[in-house]
Every structure is written in structure tokens, then in C-alpha cells.
Amino acid sequence: xxxxxxxSLWLLAITVVLCCLIYPLAVWAIGQTFFPFSANGSMVNGxxxxxxxxxxxxxxxxxxxxxxxxxxxxxYDASASSSSALSASNYMLRYRVAQALxxxxxxxxxxxxxxxxxxxxxxxxxxxxxxxxxxxxxxxAEAHNAAAQAWVNADPTHDKYVQDWGxxxxxxxxxxxxxxxxxxxxxxxxxxxxxxxxxxxxNPGKFPSAVQHQTKDGKTEMVIEPVKDGSDIQSNFFDMWRxxxxxxxxxxxxxxxxxxxxxxxxxxxxxxxxxxxxxxxxSAWAKDTKRDQGQVRTEIEQMVEADAEAPLGGxxxxxxxxxxxxxxxxxxxxxxxx
Length: 338
Fold this sequence. Notes:
The chain is mainly α. It is built from 16 helices and 8 strands. The chain has helices spanning 2-34, 36-39, 91-101, 118-125, 136-143, 145-153, 156-168, 170-179, 192-202, 231-236, 238-244, 271-276, 278-289, 293-307, 311-314, 323-334; strands at residues 43-45, 51-54, 129-130, 133-134, 207-214, 220-227, 268-270, 320-322.
């Protein structure tokens, strides 16, 4: 019996040494010797020599001077990788895609070919009518209940704005409680539809949106105010504008510009996606550098082509561009954006 136990213990010891010590050390040594960049997370440095991110993890870029990655259901949080988990039949998927399209889609033909649709969405919104009916914000909230509630929950300032509205509109709140006896103490999200209906009547052609103000001590703060234009209107009302302008000929938008990846952290975009963003990026850099946009666009287009590559050295598949790597190239060439 002791002989079998001794052999088992020896086998366990050898296995532990091989699997928990020798093998990990061998893999680490090979990685550090032959693939040090990849083995250390594919980290890249900015112009100041400090790490700015990994080529394997997407991060948000908001300035017009930079290319933007595809949307992220994880808010680009590497510790919370996830997809949107929305099926093709889910209403919120259509709505989220429409939100992404609003600020970027362009006319395909006609006198405004190549121009953004966004300014026309704003002008149409300000008429405060949809399908021949008035109070467009109220109609939006009624048609998009989940989106209206999501707006309230999206930020603490939104929640507070609705709370303050409730304090000055006790009649509407009491009527909601009367109509919904199962909710005697409604939260801000519960009052979303009632709030937007009231807001729409009091502020025709406007939408509650964050506006930046400077305080007396020189700091900045975000305050919710009624606005008649801006990205919130372009995003939230594009779908309704499209329904009122079904005959408008619009350009196709690359799918990865408006859909999230399975991880929510895809660091690459398709070459088509990058090319679609060229006008915005080159226009911003031309303004910063005070140069001709055509020349700047040609330079950036060449950089995009140089960075684009297909899987397995181009043997098959569509070409992709790493967003962080491309933006670093822009920063090294043109400097700090204004």
C-alpha cells in the first residue's frame, strides 16, 4: 500500500513541477525572447514616451481629428467585456443603430450629395411636427418608451432634472399616481413619458440636453436645458425624420460604424469604415494646421492605406485598420489637436 502511495505522490510532485513551474517559465521565456511586444500586452507609447493603450483593446476617441472605433456595449471597459446581446428582432437594436446613424449619415444624390443629413434633422425637428401631428418630443416618448426611460437613467443630471420637474408639476405627478395605483411613489424613470409630454408642450421644438456652463469660480458644469439642435437631437430623432423622408436617397454606412462587436472592445475597424471618416478627420486637421483640406486628406488617406491589412498577411478576408495605431500616426505627424 505504501508503495502505491509513494508512486502517486511522486507522480503528483512531477506533474506540479512540470505544469506549474517548468511549462509556465518556458512559455514566459519564449514570449519574452521572441515576442516581447505581444507578450507584454501590445502596449504602445505616445509622443511623450508614456503608454497610451494596447493595440488589442479599443478605447473611445471623441475629437474630430481622430478616427473613432466601432460602438461598444461595454463602454470600452476592458474589465466588463460584453456584446449588446440584442437580437435582430429587438426594438432597442434598431433604435440604437438609428442613434448612431443620425450624426454621420450623408445624402447619396441630389443637390446635397455628400452632405450630412444632421442639419436637416435639426431643422425638421424644430418644426415640432411628426406625421402631421404636433409635439414631436411627446410623440417620440410615446413611441419609444424604453428609450425615454433610458434617457432618464443615463445620467444623474437627467434624473435630477426630472425630479425638479416633478416638484413643480405636482398635478401631473398626482394624475400619474391616480392612473397607476400600483406605483404610489414613482421614480424618475416611471415618470419619463409624463415628463416628456409636459416638456414638449412647454418647449415646442426643443429637447432636454446637457449644456456646458462656466461657474463663478472658473470651473465648468453640465446643466440640462431645452435645446433646438445638437447631437442629442440628431441621434434620437433620425429614425422619425427618416420615416417622414422615406424618399431621401442616403449613402450606405459601413455596418461596423453602427454595430458593436462581440467583445465590445474590438480595436480595429474595416478599411471602408476608416475611409467613411476621412472627410471629418481631414477637415479637422486642415483647420488645425491651416492647410488645404485636399492635401491633408490625401496624406491621411495614404496613412490609412499603409496601416490597413487583412488577416494572415493579406491571404484572405477584408482589410482592417487598428484605430489606436492610426490615431498615433496622426498625432505624430500633425501634433496635438487644438
